[in-house]
C-alpha cells in the first residue's frame, strides 16, 4: 500500500461536529442505507404492482442514488434533508395513487389478465425511480462523508459491517412479519441520529417528513388490515357466495386465492376434479400438492380419499390464513403435513414417492429480489422440474397441473415440457377458452392416464420447453421485450444527466474507469449467485437473504485479507478471478443438484464465492491506492447500476452465460488498470 493511500485527508466540517464518532456513525449510516433500500423495494412493490415484476427497477434507482451520494461528498457542506422530504412525498404519492397490475403486456410474463387502475406505468415508474435515487442519495452522502476520516480499507470494512447489520435487521423484521410502520419508525430514528438537526428550520425539515411517513404507514396498516409476509402485503375479506362462506385473499392488491369448501369448489370449477379423473389407477395414497396456499386443493385431495398429503406452500402467511379461516379446516387433518418452502427445492430434497403430484396454481406475483426476471415459481416449470416430479411418482402415479394460462401457446409449451419429461403426450383439458383455463395431466407411463380428447401436440409456433438456465416460461421469444429495452435506455440517459449535474465533469471519474467496470461485472456475478442458489436451495426469502449476506461476508473477508496480509499483485489476482469464473462455468447446476444437500452447500459456496472473493481482493487493492476514495467508490457503485441493466441479457443468453459477460468485463477492467497499479505489490 502506498504512502498516499495511508494518508488521511482533513475531516469534513459536518463530520467533525457530529456527536457520534466516525466508526459507529459509518456503521449506522451504512446499515440505514441498505435497510432503506430493501424497505423501498418491498413497500413500493406492494402498492405499485408494476414493481412486483420490476423489483430491479427500484434497485437501479437505489444504485444511482448511492453513487450520486458518494460523488456529492466534498461539493457541499449542507445536510441532506432532501432525503426525508422526498421519502415523505413518495409515501404519500404511492398511498394516494396505488396501481394494480396490467398483465396483458406481451413479454411481461403474467398468468391472467386484469385491467390497470391508477397512474399509467410511463408516469408512475419514472417518479418512483427518481424518488428512490434521491432518497438513497442522502444516506449515501452521510456514509461517504465518513470515508475521508478513515484509511480507505478501514472505511470500506465498517461500511460492509453496517450493510450486514442492515440486512440482518430487515431479515429479522421479515421473520417477525413487522408492518411497514415499523420500517418507517426505524427510518425516522436513523434520520434523527445521523442528521442531528440543531436549528429550528432543520428540526422542522426532519420532524415533519418523519411524522408524515410514520403516520401514513400506520394508517395503511390499520385501515387495510394487511398481513405482511416476506413476499407480499396480504389482505383478506369474508363474504357468502350462494350461501357458501368464502375467504377472498389479495396480495399486493391483486386477487390471488379463495378459500372455499371443497364440495362447492368441485361443483363450481371443473378443473379441480380433472386431475383425479385422469388418473387411470384411481389409487390415492400419498399426494404432494405444490402451491397449497389457503388449503382448498388440500381439502379436495382429502375429499377424494387421499391417505396422506404433503402440502407445500412458500408463503407462511397464506398457510396461516388457510389454517385459521378455511371452512373445511384441512390443515387440522392429521393426514396433512405442511412444508413452508419452495416447491422445486422440496422435490430436490425429499425421497418420498407419490401417487399424485399436483402443481395447484403455484404462480407467484413477485420476482426474486435482486434477480432481474426470476420469479418465485420460475424453477417449477422447467423441463428439469418436470423430470424431478416424474422421479417422485410411484408406479401407476400421475402428475397434474392447472391454472389460467392466458395464452394458448403457454398451454402448448407446458404440455410439450411435460411430454419431453415423461416421454409421451399428456392429457390436455381446456376447461374454459376464456383465460385459457387448462389442466395438464401425465401418468408415469402412457397407460397410467385416462385422457378425454387427445392433445394435438405443439404447433410450429410453440416455443421450446424452458430450462433451468433460462427459466422464463412466459417469455415467448429469446429476446429482451421492448418495454424493458426502452425503460433501461431511459434509465441510462437519466443517470448520465444526473451524474453530470451532481458530480460535475466526467473527467473527475475518468481515472477510475476500471473501478466502474468492476462494479458492472460484480453485479452480474452477484445475480448469477442469487439465481444459482435459488435453484439449488429454493427461491425463499430466507435463501435470498442468506445469499446476499454471504456475498457481503465474502467481500468483508477479501477486505480483511487485503488489510492484514501481503496479497499477490493485481495481475495475479485477476488471474485467480478468471480461474474462479472458469470453475463456476465448468461446474453445472445439474451436477450440484445430484449431491446430498450438505455436500451441495459446501461445493456451491466454494464455486460461487471464490470469484466473488477474488474480485473483491482486486477491488480492495485498487481502491486502497486510489487518490480520491469517494469518487472511486461512487464510480464503482454507478457501475453496479449499469450491471443491473445488463442483468436482462440473461433473458437472451441464460444465467450461465452471465459468467462469460462478467469475464469480458473483468478483462476490460484489467486493460484499463493504471500502469502504476499493475506493478504495485
TrEMBL record:
GO terms of molecular function: transferase activity
Q: Which CDD domains match?
A: AdoMet_MTases
Which Pfam families does the UniProt entry name for this protein? Spermine_synth
Q: What is this protein called?
A: PABS domain-containing protein
User: Which source organism?
Assistant: Planomonospora venezuelensis
* InterPro entries xref list: PABS, SAM-dependent_MTases_sf
* Domain PABS residue range list: 307-447
- Family, per entry: Belongs to the spermidine/spermine synthase family.
Q: Which GO terms describe its biological process?
A: polyamine biosynthetic process
> Which keywords describe this protein according to UniProt?
Membrane, Polyamine biosynthesis, Transferase, Transmembrane, Transmembrane helix
Q: Which spans are transmembrane here?
A: 26-45, 51-74, 81-101, 121-143, 155-175, 483-503, 515-535, 541-559, 571-587, 599-619, 631-649, 655-673
Amino acid at each position: 500500500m502506498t504512502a498516499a493511500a495511508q494518508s488521511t485527508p482533513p475531516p469534513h466540517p459536518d463530520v467533525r461536529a457530529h456527536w457520534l464518532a466516525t466508526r459507529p456513525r459509518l456503521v449506522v449510516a451504512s446499515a440505514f442505507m441498505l435497510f432503506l433500500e430493501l424497505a423501498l423495494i418491498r413497500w413500493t412493490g406492494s402498492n405499485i404492482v408494476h414493481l412486483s415484476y420490476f423489483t430491479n427497477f427500484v434497485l437501479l434507482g437505489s444504485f444511482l442514488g448511492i453513487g450520486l451520494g458518494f460523488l456529492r461528498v466534498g461539493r457541499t457542506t449542507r445536510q441532506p434533508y432532501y432525503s426525508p422530504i422526498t421519502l415523505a412525498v413518495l409515501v404519500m404519492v404511492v398511498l394516494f395513487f396505488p396501481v394494480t397490475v396490467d398483465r396483458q403486456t406481451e413479454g411481461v410474463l403474467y398468468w391472467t389478465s386484469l385491467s390497470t387502475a391508477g397512474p399509467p406505468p410511463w408516469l408512475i415508474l419514472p417518479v418512483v425511480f427518481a424518488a428512490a435515487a434521491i432518497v438513497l442519495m442522502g444516506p449515501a452522502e452521510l456514509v461517504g462523508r465518513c470515508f475521508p476520516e478513515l484509511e480507505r480499507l478501514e472505511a470500506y470494512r465498517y461500511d460492509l459491517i453496517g450493510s450486514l447489520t442492515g440486512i440482518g435487521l430487515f431479515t429479522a423484521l421479515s421473520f417477525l412479519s413487522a408492518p411497514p410502520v415499523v420500517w418507517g419508525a426505524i427510518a425516522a430514528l436513523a434520520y434523527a441520529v445521523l442528521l442531528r438537526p440543531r436549528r429550528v428550520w432543520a428540526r422542522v425539515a426532519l420532524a415533519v417528513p418523519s411524522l408524515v411517513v410514520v403516520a401514513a404507514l400506520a394508517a395503511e396498516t390499520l385501515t387495510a388490515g394487511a398481513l405482511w409476509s416476506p413476499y407480499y402485503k396480504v389482505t383478506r375479506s369474508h363474504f357468502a357466495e350462494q350461501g357458501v362462506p368464502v375467504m377472498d385473499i389479495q396480495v399486493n392488491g391483486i386477487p390471488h386465492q379463495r378459500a372455499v369448501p371443497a364440495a362447492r369448489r368441485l361443483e363450481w370449477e371443473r378443473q379441480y376434479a380433472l386431475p383425479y379423473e385422469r388418473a387411470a389407477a384411481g389409487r390415492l395414497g400419498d399426494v404432494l400438492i405444490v402451491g397449497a396456499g389457503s388449503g382448498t386443493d388440500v381439502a379436495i385431495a382429502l375429499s377424494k380419499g387421499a391417505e396422506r398429503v404433503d402440502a407445500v406452500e412458500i408463503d407462511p402467511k397464506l398457510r396461516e390464513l388457510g389454517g385459521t379461516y378455511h371452512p373445511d379446516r384441512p390443515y387440522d387433518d392429521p393426514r396433512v403435513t405442511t412444508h413452508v418452502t419452495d416447491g422445486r427445492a422440496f422435490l430436490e430434497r425429499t425421497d418420498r414417492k407419490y401417487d399424485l403430484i399436483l402443481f395447484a396454481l403455484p404462480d407467484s406475483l413477485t420476482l426474486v429480489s435482486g434477480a432481474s426476471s426470476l420469479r418465485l415459481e420460475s424453477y417449477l416449470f422447467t423441463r428439469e422440474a418436470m423430470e424431478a416430479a416424474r422421479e417422485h411418482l410411484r408406479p401407476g402415479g400421475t402428475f397434474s397441473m392447472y391454472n389460467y394460462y392466458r395464452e394458448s401457446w403457454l398451454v402448448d409449451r407446458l404440455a410439450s415440457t411435460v411430454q419431453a419429461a415423461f416421454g409421451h403426450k399428456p392429457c390436455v383439458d381446456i376447461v374454459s377458452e376464456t383465460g385459457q383455463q387448462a389442466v395438464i395431466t401425465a401418468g408415469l407411463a402412457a397407460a397410467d392416464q385416462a385422457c378425454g380428447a387427445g392433445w394435438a401436440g405443439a404447433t410450429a409456433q410453440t416455443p421450446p420447453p424452458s430450462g433451468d438456465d433460462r427459466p422464463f416460461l412466459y417469455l415467448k421469444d429469446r429476446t429482451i421485450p421492448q418495454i424493458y429495452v426502452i425503460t433501461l435506455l431511459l434509465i441510462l440517459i437519466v443517470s448520465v444527466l444526473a451524474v453530470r449535474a451532481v458530480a460535475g465533469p466526467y473527467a473527475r471519474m475518468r481515472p477510475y474507469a476500471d473501478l466502474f467496470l468492476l462494479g458492472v461485472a460484480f453485479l452480474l456475478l452477484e445475480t448469477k449467485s442469487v439465481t444459482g442458489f435459488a435453484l439449488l436451495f429454493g427461491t425463499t426469502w430466507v435463501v435470498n437473504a442468506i445469499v446476499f449476506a454471504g456475498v457481503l461476508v465474502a467481500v468483508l473477508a477479501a477486505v480483511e485479507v487485503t488489510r492484514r496480509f501481503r496479497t499477490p499483485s493485481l495481475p495475479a489476482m485477476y488471474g485467480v478471478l478468471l480461474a474462479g469464473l472458469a470453475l463456476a462455468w465448468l461446474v453445472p447446476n445439474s451436477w450440484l443438484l445430484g449431491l446430498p444437500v450438505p455436500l451441495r452447500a459446501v461445493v456451491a459456496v466454494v464455486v460461487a464465492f471464490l470469484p466473488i472473493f477474488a474480485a473483491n481482493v482486486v477491488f480492495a487493492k485498487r481502491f486502497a491506492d486510489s487518490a480520491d476514495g469517494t469518487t472511486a467508490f461512487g464510480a464503482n457503485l454507478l457501475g453496479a447500476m449499469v450491471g443491473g441493466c445488463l442483468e436482462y441479457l440473461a433473458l437472451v443468453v441464460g444465467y450461465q452465460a452471465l459468467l462469460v459477460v462478467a469475464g469480458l468485463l473483468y478483462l476490460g477492467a484489467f486493460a484499463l488498470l493504471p500502469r502504476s497499479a499493475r506493478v504495485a505489490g
